[in-house]
Amino acid sequence: MNNNIVLIGFMGCGKTTVGQELAQRLNYKFLDTDQYIEEKEGTTIRNIFSEKGEVYFRNLETSTLKELVEETKESVVSSGGGLPLRQENAKLLQKLGFVIYLKVSKDTVVERLKGDTTRPLLQGDNPAKKVEELLCFRDPIYEVGAHMAISVDNKTVEEIADEIIRNYETMQHKNKED
Ligand code: S3P
Fold this sequence. Notes:
The chain has a single domain, classed as 3-Layer(aba) Sandwich (Rossmann fold). The protein is 58% helix and 13% strand. It contains eight helices and five strands. Strands 2-3-1-4-5 form a five-stranded parallel sheet, with helices on both faces. α1 (15-26) crosses α8 (157-177), α3 packs across α4 and α4 packs parallel to α5. The longest helix is centred in the last third of the chain and has 21 residues, at 157-177. The structure holds shikimate-3-phosphate (S3P). The site of shikimate-3-phosphate has 10 residues, from loops.
């Protein structure tokens, strides 16, 4: 396993905000797979979905992950919400680093993403229903794909970062002893 911290979880769970806080505190680099893909493709996720389709985007996620496993060290990586769903990706994520699932409730997601137009999967008449269905399907996959899960509802970014750093340091300490 590389010595990175990898954040996974549903859209709106705070992967980017928490990831940036962690990177600052640990003096690690910060990398967001969505931003990485947008920069590489020179366009937004929304445009990639509408012009090339979801499968094209999912393939970009897998190729990005393969690159990151080879190159990335001492970084906090925030991954797109759908990235751990492919089994191949879930394995690569575990190779990339210590994987943490930021577990969020449906209500928090709906509240945070009210009016959001950047997430193609949540557009349409009833985004709350889409959140519910997707979250229900994905939650067990996130659980299995992570080394640990942390509930994020009603916690501050600082509290979540404290909890992650405590666990990350314990994990590093154990690895040294083995
Ligand atoms: C997606 C989540 C988004 C982005 C894309 C698809 C998903 O990332 O990758 O819209 O399938 O959950 P965030 O989780 O950063 O919003």
